[in-house]
Specification:
single chain, about 400 residues, alpha+beta, 5-stranded mixed sheet, about 50% helix, about 10% strand, globular, binds protoporphyrin IX containing FE
Length: about 400
C-alpha cells in the first residue's frame, strides 16, 4: 500500500487534490486505499475503466461491500433508478429517450436564449460595478435554461436549489447517515412538487422535454413513474449543479492567469478554451465503477489484480493532469492542442449527456462576462465548497468596471 494517502477526510487534500494525485500516479497508479476502494489516477486506466464492459456503473447491484447503514440508505434512494446508475441495456433504453433533445444541433438552437439570459443577469452589475459571481450569474443562467428545457416553473428556485445541493452532497465519500437522511427529506419535499408539475403537464402536453418523456411513458414503453421521477431529478440537478461550478472554477482560473484572461477578452471564449478550463479544474473530480469479473491493470509490466465487486474510483481530475497525455498539466494553456481529450465529462456510455449544453452555456457566459467589462477584479479570494466529488466555488465577490461607451 502506498505511503501517500488518498484521504477524502483530509481538508487540505479536498482543497487542492493535485499534489496527492501526482504522487499516487507516480508511486502506485492502481492504489488500494485503507478505506477499501481502489483509486485509478492514470489517464489510460481511467479511460479503460469507463469504456470497458467489464466495469459496471450499478454499484448498488454489483459491488461486494460491507452492508453499512449508509449503503442501505443509498440502495433505497429513488435516484438509483436514474440512468446514471444503470448499465446497458436499461441504460441504453433510458438514454435514447432523451438523447435527441441534447444533440449539438438541438443545443445550438438555444444560443440566442442563453445570450438573452446572460445579458439580463449582467444588467445590474453593469450599473453597480459589483458582481457576486455565483448567486448573481453562475447559478441563475443554467438554472433558468434547464427549467425552460423541462418547462419547470422557477417560482421556487431557492428551495429547489437548496434541495439539489443537499442531494448532491450525498455524492461525497464523507457522507454519513445524517446527510443521507437530510437528502431523503429533500427528495421527499421535491417529489410532491415534481409530481404536481408532472400531473399538470400530463393533462397539457407541450413541446418540452418533460412532455416528451411523459408521452414515451404513455405510449406504454417501460418508463415507470419512479424512472420518470429519477430522470427529471437527474436532469434538473445535473443541469445546473455542475455548470455553476464550471463558471466559478473557470473565473478563478482566469483571474489567476492574466495572460489567458487577456486572450479570452480579445478573442471571446472558444470551445477549445472551455475544454482547457474543464481539463484544468473540472467540476466533477471522480466517478465510481465496479468490475463484474476479476480483472487486472498493468503497472510496470506486471498485472495488478482487482477483484470482482471491488469499488473502483476513476479520478477524472487526476487523469486530466496526467503528464503522459497533457504536457505541463498544471498550466492553463489555451493553445493546448489536445485539451478536448479531457475527462471532465467522463467517457464511455455514461459520457455526459449535457456536455454540449454545458459547453454552450460556458462559452456564452464567459465570453459575455469578460467582454462586458473593462476590468474585472476579485475583491477577495473565492470561497470553495468543502467537497471532493463536486468541486466548486461557492462565493466570489468581483468588482466589475463597466466599459466606457464611445458612442
Ligand atoms: C460543466 C458541466 C457538467 C459536467 C462537468 C458534467 C459531468 C458529468 C459526468 C462526469 C458525467 C458521467 C459520470 C459517470 O461517468 O459516472 C455526467 C453524466 C450526465 N450528465 Fe453531466 N455534466 C455537466 C453538465 C450537465 C448538464 C448541463 C446536463 C443536463 C442538462 C447534464 C446531464 C447529465 C446526464 C443526464 C448524465 C448521465 C448520462 C448517462 O448516464 O448516460 N450534465 N455529467
Amino acid at each position: 500500500m502506498t505511503a501517500v494517502a488518498f484521504d477524502p477526510f483530509d481538508a487540505e487534500f479536498r482543497r487542492n487534490p493535485h499534489p496527492i494525485y501526482d504522487q499516487i500516479r507516480a508511486e502506485e497508479p492502481v492504489c488500494f486505499t485503507p478505506l477499501g476502494f481502489v483509486v485509478l489516477t492514470r489517464y489510460d486506466d481511467v479511460v479503460h475503466t469507463l469504456r470497458s464492459n467489464d466495469f459496471s456503473r450499478d454499484i448498488e447491484k454489483n459491488a461486494i461491500l460491507p452492508q453499512t447503514p449508509t449503503r442501505e440508505f443509498r440502495r433505497k434512494s429513488v435516484r438509483n433508478r436514474s440512468m446514471l446508475n444503470l448499465d446497458p441495456p436499461d441504460h441504453t433504453r433510458l438514454r435514447s429517450l432523451v438523447s435527441k433533445s441534447f444533440t449539438p444541433s438541438a443545443i445550438e438552437r438555444l444560443r440566442p436564449r442563453v445570450q438573452q439570459l446572460v445579458d439580463a443577469a449582467l444588467h445590474s452589475a453593469r450599473q453597480s460595478g459589483h458582481l457576486e459571481l455565483i448567486e448573481e450569474f453562475a447559478f441563475p443562467v443554467p438554472f433558468q435554461v434547464i427549467s425552460e428545457l423541462l418547462d419547470m416553473p422557477t417560482d421556487r428556485a431557492d428551495e429547489l436549489r437548496e434541495w439539489s445541493q443537499i442531494i448532491t452532497a450525498t455524492l461525497e465519500f464523507t457522507t454519513g447517515v445524517a446527510e443521507l437522511e437530510k437528502a431523503q427529506v429533500a427528495i421527499a419535499k421535491m417529489r410532491p412538487y415534481l409530481d404536481e408539475i408532472i400531473s399538470r403537464r400530463r393533462k397539457n402536453l407541450g413541446n418540452d422535454m418533460l412532455s416528451s418523456l411523459i408521452s414515451v411513458e404513455e405510449r406504454g414503453e417501460r418508463l415507470t413513474n419512479d424512472e420518470l421521477m429519477a430522470f427529471v431529478i437527474l436532469l434538473y440537478i445535473a443541469g445546473h449543479e455542475t455548470t455553476v461550478n464550471l463558471i466559478g472554477n473557470s473565473m478563478h482560473a482566469l483571474l489567476t492567469h492574466p495572460r489567458q484572461f487577456a486572450q479570452m477578452k480579445a478573442q471571446g471564449c472558444s470551445s477549445q478554451m472551455v475544454d482547457e478550463l474543464l481539463r484544468f479544474d473540472g467540476p466533477v473530480q471522480h466517478t465510481m465503477r465496479t468490475p463484474v469479473v476479476d480483472t487486472a491493470i498493468q503497472v510496470d509490466g506486471r498485472p495488478v489484480k482487482i477483484k470482482r465487486g471491488s469499488l473502483v474510483l476513476a479520478s477524472l481530475g487526476a487523469g486530466n493532469h496526467d503528464p503522459s497525455i497533457f504536457e505541463r498539466p498544471h498550466v492553463l494553456d489555451f493553445s493546448r492542442k489536445n485539451a478536448n481529450r479531457h475527462l471532465s465529462f467522463s467517457a464511455g456510455v455514461h459520457y455526459c449527456l449535457g456536455a454540449s449544453l454545458a459547453k454552450l452555456e460556458a462559452e456564452v457566459m464567459l465570453s459575455s462576462l469578460v467582454k462586458s467589462f473593462d476590468k474585472i477584479e476579485a475583491l477577495a479570494d473565492p470561497e470553495w465548497r468543502d467537497r471532493l466529488t463536486i468541486r466548486g466555488v461557492t462565493r466570489y465577490e468581483l468588482s466589475v468596471q463597466p466599459l466606457i461607451s464611445t458612442r
